[in-house]
Amino acid sequence: MERLSSSVQAWVEEHKLATIGGVWATAVGASVAYGRRKSPQMRLIHARLHAQALTLAVLGGAALAHHYYTPNNNKQQQQQDDYDFYSQLPPATNADGEENERWSW
C-alpha cells in the first residue's frame, strides 16, 4: 500500500494542474448529480460554488504539500548565487593599488 501511495504522490507532484483540474471537474459533476431536485440553473450555480470551494481547499493543500516536501536549501542557494555574482565583477583596484576606471565616478 505504501508503494501505491508513494507512486500516486509522485504523479500528483509532477501533474499538479491536471490533478487540480480533475478534482474541480469531479466536484462539479458530483454536485450536479447530487442536486437533482433543484432547477437546472440552481444546480449549476451550486455546482460552481462547491467546485470553487473545493478547488481553494486543494490549492491550499498543494501549497502546504509543496512547502512540506520541498527541501529548505534556499538560503544556501542564495549565498551561492551572491558569491557567483560578485566573483564575476572586476576588481576595484589594479595590481598597483590604483582605482580602476570602471569603479570611479
TrEMBL record:
Stretches for region Disordered: 73-105
Keyword annotations of the record: Membrane, Transmembrane, Transmembrane helix
Gene Ontology terms: cellular component: mitochondrion
GO BP, sorted A to Z: mitochondrial respiratory chain complex IV assembly
Principal cellular location given in the protein's record: mitochondrion
Residue ranges constituting the HIG1 domain according to the UniProt record: 1-77
Location(s), subcellular: Mitochondrion
InterPro entries reported for this sequence: Hypoxia_induced_domain (IPR007667), Rcf2 (IPR040153)
Domain of life of the source: Eukaryota
Protein name (database record): HIG1 domain-containing protein
